[in-house]
Specification:
The complex is a heterodimer of chains A (203) and B (258). Chain A has 203 residues and is of the alpha/beta class. Chain A contains eight helices and eight strands, in the order βββαββαβααααβααβ. In chain A, the strands form two sheets. Chain A has a four-stranded antiparallel beta sheet, with helices on one face. Chain A has a four-stranded parallel beta sheet with strand order 3-8-7-6, with helices on both faces. In chain A, a hairpin with a 2-residue loop joins strand 4 and strand 5. The longest helix of chain B has 42 residues, at 72-113. Chain B is built from ten helices and no strands. Classes of the chains: A alpha/beta (203), B mainly alpha (258). The interface between A and B is medium-sized, with 18 and 18 residues.
């Protein structure tokens, strides 16, 4: 087994410590005891910063005390689908997917387009019609799908999906369960982490 | 008072940011956003002003000749002074405030309240680069274009429609107009409309990005502040600019032209 892609340690007064270790190259389902712990872990990953009582290591590197450039370099290797999804409401699905890469010029747009078309087709959606739609015209699963395809386009070494099944019905949850295979097909060496609450995790 | 000072300080900081971040236009999504803003502010607004602008020109000529009992020369001078120098840029600015300013401030306030601006920051996208720079430049350019369009329609409308109301031919009116008009009139109105576009966009971006409350109620409040302050800023600039240009700097030149 390869070195840990993520190590997270949360100590809170009067509460059981939360210790997370995710080996690199694996798929893990993490069930955290409460929403505060979940929010703090996702917050730490989003900002690559630790608050008081937290320790976070990414790819064997503690994030505390990192410089801005080092933090940015680490951030480039992580992709996160948050519960809020972070979609821009006046951009259609394609613009939402390609925005980050097009803005930073990290990848050719043609490559993102191919990733988006292939992933959407594999997940049972017609790319031609879907990519022109605005987030407000989508249901919960479709918004999650856009956020996931955006994550795939970033080609992250560590992918984190927060509350995959939340807000989805049974049929949508079944479709969302195919995200894992889709990520694994593109990133065989990558690490995939599903984060949920212990009492309402996905099946 | 403190709020007013804070708003002025915020506006100045936004102004500096726009100026320093102009190179962001090299990025494809920022360019797209800029073109979208030009299209929304300039192109889609242009159809709605055709009748109003052409009617305005006819009304000014007819009103001047009937009420003031003026000759065609004075009527054309008033058309030039009022439409070309003052009403054209002001009408364009008002159209921009009412259509674009409201939409822009509401859109940005909504983005701020729903966490979309945080989402952009997490993607490493600067909100000034992606949201403010293309909007400010797009609105400036579109306001100038809309001003030219309104001026053209108002002058043409005045010359085409006025002969139906008053005793003056199209040829007579147009000959007098081209005798009187000078490049300084266009330069003055374009410069002014660029300033109008700039201040409207800056004010609306500022209030959109800084809504008074981070709830849905904050959106209409941000829009109200953006629209009222934009209108006041435009009228103030118009008065100051008219005084500076016609009162101090170019008085002799303009007087000679007129």
């Amino acid at each position: 087994m390869s070195a840990a892609a993520l190590r997270y340690d949360l100590r809170r007064d009067g509460q059981t410590p939360v210790v997370v270790e995710v080996p690199g190259g694996t798929t893990q389902r993490l069930r955290l005891p409460d929403s505060d712990a979940k929010a703090r872990l996702i917050g730490a990953l989003l900002t690559t910063r630790c608050a008081a009582g937290e320790e976070l290591e990414l790819f064997g590197e503690p994030v505390r005390g990192l410089r801005r450039a080092e933090r940015a370099r680490l951030h480039e290797r992580i992709g996160i689908v948050t519960q809020a999804m972070g979609l821009i409401s006046n951009l259609n699905a394609w613009e939402n997917i390609s925005l980050q890469a097009a803005y930073h010029g990290t990848q050719p747009v043609a490559r993102i387009a191919k990733t988006a078309h292939d992933a959407l087709a594999a997940l049972g959606t017609d790319p031609a019609r879907f990519l022109a739609r605005l987030p407000d015209e989508m249901d919960a699963f479709e918004r999650k799908l856009v956020a996931f395809v955006r994550l795939l386009a970033k080609e992250p070494v560590l992918a984190v999906i927060d509350g995959l099944g939340e807000g989805l019905n049974r049929e949508q949850s079944a479709r969302a369960a195919r995200f894992e295979a889709e990520y694994r097909a593109r990133q065989p060496e990558g690490t995939l982490l599903f984060v949920d609450l212990a009492e309402e995790g996905i099946a | 008072m403190i709020r007013a000072l804070r708003e002025v300080e915020g506006g100045l900081r936004l102004l500096m940011n726009v100026w320093l971040r102009l190179p962001a236009l090299r990025r494809a999504p920022v360019r797209e956003s800029f073109l979208r803003q030009v299209y929304f502010t300039g192109v889609t607004a242009s159809t709605g002003v055709v009748l109003r602008a052409s009617g305005l020109g006819a009304l000014i000529i007819a009103f001047t000749m009937q009420v003031l009992d003026a000759d065609t020369g004075l009527a054309v001078k008033i058309l030039l002074w009022v439409v070309l120098r003052e009403v054209g840029p002001l009408a364009a600015a008002m159209v921009v405030i009412l259509r674009t300013g409201t939409a822009m401030s509401a859109e940005l306030a909504m983005m701020r309240i729903t966490g979309q601006i945080d989402a952009l920051r997490r993607m490493g996208i600067e909100s000034y680069d992606y949201l403010v720079v293309p909007r400010v430049l797009g609105v400036m350019l579109a306001t100038a274009a809309l001003t030219c369009y309104i001026q053209f329609l108002a002058v043409l409308g005045g010359m085409v429609l006025a002969p139906f109301v008053i005793q003056a031919s199209f040829t007579e009116l147009s000959t007098q107009f081209f005798d009187l008009v000078a490049p300084v009139d266009f330069l003055y109105s374009i410069l002014k409309s660029l300033m109008f576009g700039f201040i409207v966009a800056l004010t609306c971006c500022y209030h959109g990005l800084n809504p008074p409350a981070f709830t849905l109620n904050g959106v209409p409040q941000a829009v109200t502040r953006a629209v009222t302050q934009s209108a006041v800023a435009v009228l103030t600039i118009n008065a100051v600019f008219a005084y500076l240009v016609f009162g101090v700097l170019f008085f002799g030149l303009v007087k000679a032209v007129a």
